[in-house]
Amino acid sequence: MKKLFTNLTFWVLTAIATGALLGHFKPDTAIEMKVLGDKFIWVVKLFILPIIFLTISLGISGMGDLKKVGKVGGKALIYFEVVTTFALLIGIFIANLIQPGKGVIASGTPGANVDQYREGAQSFSWMDIFSENKTIQVLLFSILFGIFLSKYAKSKPIIDILTKASKVVFKALHWVMILAPIGAFGGMAYTIGKHGIGSLVPLGKLMISVCTTMAIFIFAVLGYILNYYKISLWKFLKYIREELLIVLGTSSSEAALPSLMEKLERMGCSKPVVGLVVPAGYSFNLDGTTIYLSMATLFLAQVFGIQLSLEQIITVIGILMVTSKGAAGVTGSGFVVLASTLSALKVIPIEGLALLLGVDRFMSEARAITNFIGNGVATIFLANNEGEFDRKKMEYAFGHIDETEDILKDNFNIK
């Protein structure tokens, strides 16, 4: 019993359930809890850029072979494009098969304001990705700084300082993660209090379709990718369960990004691969967002009774293959990108976005979880592909190696 009450997973689950109950029975009070979720995410975000900088700089400086760094980066971009295209095609296929928008009344959400998203769509550009996305900026700077450290002969004192700083940052992060239940409580309470369970009913078919599609993608596509290297998806999900619950409670995959990077290293992925792939993946490997964008586009076409031709569907695929890559770098995230997609298509009324406003917050949780798992799987796959993965560490992290036996082998040379 004592172990249960010191388990972070238990407290995050309890916080999510309590927040949902408060949101249902005391919505006005629950809405005020939004500040708890926002503040927790804000504090965690303070760690993201320093961790990316320290992880990449130290990783590259210790790697030695700079050609390998470029090779990993190139493979990562190819992997992102291939896997997100799979996600896009699966989303379009299931949306056409189930047709979640059929029978939904387009005027079901009167008075919803979509002007901000229309304006965001008109101003969407690739420059926004680099000007607003600090993650990419720090990623590029860290790579250059890591190269400098590896080439500069007297860089050891700098590396020693950064190593000590890294230990301090991760230790501080562990203390912050103790507050995860408070953040999860605030995020869930606000979501239920603001939108209410009743808001899900009119668009329940869309939500079920999107969540089912994401589940198929995770267990079929991502499961197959891990299975290629004989790694169990179930065991990986169990290993990161606390992070998944934090993402669920806060609706933000960034809330668990630093912890994911640490856990991936602990399970055997090398520091340079983790440092390169995870930050880049948060901008270019948005599997959940891609599925949502494709299904939402076809959903709105079905709502308005618009039968898209094969040529138009191919156009949707082409547009989303580009715009979905910028979802993390634009204010308003996936919703603005969806607006830009509809504007470019010029077939589906952009006013249809009003239908999705009520349930977007709920679906953002499914998107965030899918994005989160997708980036973890991408890192594991690329680490294995590059020979930068320690399976013994993975077995130990997954709980397959007895700690006492391991210590005996290391200290007494027991075979």
Order of helix and strand elements from N to C terminus: HHHHHHHHHHHHHHHHHHHHH
- Report, as a whole number of angstroms, the end-to-end distance: 37 Å
Radius of gyration: 22 Å
Average pLDDT, all residues: 78
In the residues, how many domains can be counted? Answer: 1
Beta-strand portion reads under 5%
Per the principal axes of the C-alpha atoms, what is the gross shape?
globular
CATH architecture tag: Orthogonal Bundle
CATH class identity: Mainly Alpha
Topology:
Layout: H1 2-5, H2 8-25, H3 27-32, H4 34-63, H5 66-98, H6 115-122, H7 126-132, H8 134-151, H9 156-177, H10 180-195, H11 204-227, H12 233-239, H13 241-250, H14 257-266, H15 271-284, H16 287-303, H17 310-323, H18 333-345, H19 353-385, H20 391-397, H21 403-412
Key phrases:
Proton glutamate symport protein, 415 residues, mainly alpha
